[in-house]
Design brief:
By secondary structure, the chain is α/β, with parallel strands linked by helices. It has one domain: 3-Layer(aba) Sandwich (Rossmann fold). Helices cover 30% and strands 18% of the residues. The protein has an 8-stranded mixed beta sheet, sandwiched between helices. It is globular. The protein starts with a helix and ends with a helix.
Length: 294
């Protein structure tokens, strides 16, 4: 099965959707589900996007990990559900469902009492229960187990995409030192990961032995990022590659943090708009290569 060829004609329209952000999304409201984190104590909330129409065969799937602001829009006004997911998360959910995948957006903050997420520059004040190195990877593995339980998902063809704090969690999730899995590999863990503008310090977790992912990882970062350092991530990737890690990074000159946010304010920056178009195409090609059956 090669879903890339079947979905290629929709690429331009999907990118335009992200850039304009005018789609109502009412018809694309995802299904709310719950499942257990691999911490064995937290019941997580997920929002599932599925391909349209009936499918006789199982399809690849994607776990989506939100950043420090949480999965919901800033205009949620206390309503935290499928109707108030941020436009970026809605757009990416639609991108994967249009590509023929099942995608689940994981809310790891709401079930722990922080549905509104956290503001900028609050890193040192965030509670331990949302730690992106020790806790959030367990949420990713809980979502992986949930997707593998679905009859419409190919259990060994599941990828991860994370943004910002969720991108940092994604890096740890795909590491050879991944929590909850002994001797992880792409067959028993995630098949690949897309990581957007993460903070690559990772609490010093990999300073001594270095970072090596057990499956292919593609990082995207803007050089004008105001919150996380693209130079630090580029250095992490370079060190990882020297250790044999299958990881690469695409740097976008002038692009800021959250460059793929489809809001007019963010996309008014030409560097952000260009980075969004390129990253969407690269992301689709990357998962087509690593998640789809030959």
């Amino acid at each position: 099965m090669r879903l890339r060829a079947a979905a290629a004609s929709a690429t331009a329209g999907l990118i335009l959707l992200m850039l304009q952000a005018t789609h109502a999304f009412a018809a694309d409201t995802p299904e709310r589900v719950t499942f257990l984190s691999a911490d064995r104590g937290t019941t997580l909330v997920g929002y599932v996007y599925t391909p349209e129409g009936a499918h006789a065969a199982r399809v690849p799937a994607v776990v989506m990990m939100h950043g420090r602001a949480g999965p919901y829009s800033k205009r949620a006004n206390g309503v935290y559900d499928a109707t108030t997911l941020s436009k970026r998360h809605q757009a990416w959910g639609r991108i994967w469902s249009e590509a023929g995948y099942v995608a689940v957006m994981v809310d790891g903050f709401g079930p722990r009492g922080y549905p509104e997420g956290f503001p900028r520059f609050s890193y040192g004040e965030r509670p331990e229960e949302v730690n992106e190195v020790t806790v959030r990877p367990l949420d990713a593995y809980g979502a992986l187990a949930y997707l593998r339980s679905r009859p419409d998902v190919l259990p060994e063809h599941i990828g991860l995409i994370g943004w910002s704090n969720g991108g940092s969690a994604g890096l740890v999730t795909l590491s050879l030192d991944a929590p909850s899995i002994q001797k992880p590999n792409a067959r028993i863990g995630f098949a690949a990961a897309l990581i957007f503008y993460p903070a690559c310090g990772l609490k010093g977790q990999f300073e001594e032995d270095g970072y090596v992912p057990y499956a292919p990882v593609q990082v995207f970062h803007g050089t004008a990022d105001q919150e996380t350092s693209s130079a630090r991530c580029a250095a992490l990737v370079e060190r990882s590659r020297k250790l044999g890690g299958e990881i690469s990074i695409t740097l976008y000159p002038g692009a800021t943090h959250g460059f793929d946010d489809p809001s007019r304010k963010r996309q008014r920056n030409p560097a952000n708009a260009a980075a969004t178009v390129d990253a969407v195409e690269k992301a689709r090609d990357f998962f087509a290569q690593h998640l789809e059956e030959p």
